[in-house]
Write a structure and sequence with these properties.
The protein is of the alpha+beta class. The protein contains 5 helices and 9 strands; from the N terminus they run E-E-E-E-H-E-E-H-E-E-E-H-H-H. Strands 1-6-5-2-3 form a 5-stranded mixed sheet. A hairpin with a 5-residue loop joins strand 5 and strand 6. It is found in: Endoplasmic reticulum membrane.
Length: 224
């Protein structure tokens, strides 16, 4: 097993599996180098694919022309292992000369259907640091063919979610509490009106108990 000296984050083309912490490089030039592995062997064989320089506060897309030699190499390997994986390693080098490694992958048959064009999404956190790199097929064709168009690298910054409205929530709780207290204070019914459902069964029970009497005493009076 190969041991990396840099923090590693694994991402597939749909889900983030593990996320890592990277040092902030806000508004500093960074460089990301892409390597790919199409051998699908036990030993990793990373080949240089592209290199992009960017500023962490700038978001948008960068088109990277496909190299004909690189395309032919991918096509030949894809035909040999159609059921394998196309793996991408992204090495981010910050302005502080620190490196962070991210892995992505997709199925080889998906890459073939996409005409060997990929869309790479680089996600940045609020501090401008890379937190994940995802790999997608750029488009799906019915018949596999080699396209000489551009692959795309897109940089996306984090978006702030909705802030909870605590003031409205507290006011709502206060209104509910006041309404409950108001209803409790308006109950001015008499004692009988409130508890008649308990009093009536008790009265019936007392009447029935008194009407039965003592059978032994009744027999003695009749014998006299």
């Amino acid at each position: 097993m190969r041991i990396f000296k840099t923090p590693v984050v694994y991402c597939n083309f749909i889900f983030i599996l593990v996320s890592g912490h990277v040092t902030s490089d806000y508004d500093a030039p960074q460089e990301i180098t892409f390597y790919h592995d199409i051998e699908n062997g036990e030993e990793e064989a990373w080949i240089l694919r592209d290199k992009v320089k960017f500023h962490s506060i700038n978001t948008g897309s960068v088109d990277i022309p496909q190299q004909q030699q690189l395309l032919e190499e991918i096509v030949n390997k894809a035909k040999e292992s159609n059921a394998g994986l196309y793996r991408l390693k992204s090495v981010v080098k910050t302005s502080k000369k620190k490196e962070y490694v991210f892995y992505s992958f997709m199925k080889m048959d998906t890459l073939i259907k996409a005409g060997f064009l990929t869309s790479t999404i680089v996600h940045l956190d609020q501090s401008g640091s890379v937190i994940c790199v995802k790999l997608y097929p750029k488009k799906i064709n019915r018949s596999p063919s080699v396209n000489r168009n551009n692959s795309t690298v897109t940089f996306k910054g984090s978006e702030q979610g909705p802030v909870p409205d605590l003031t409205s929530y507290v006011l709502k709780l206060e209104h509910e509490r006041a309404a409950k207290e108001k209803l409790a204070g308006q109950d001015n019914r008499s004692f009988l009106s409130k508890y008649w459902m308990y009093i009536v069964p008790l009265v019936i029970f007392v009447i029935l108990s008194g009407s039965n009497g003592d059978p032994g005493a009744s027999n003695q009076q009749q014998s006299r």
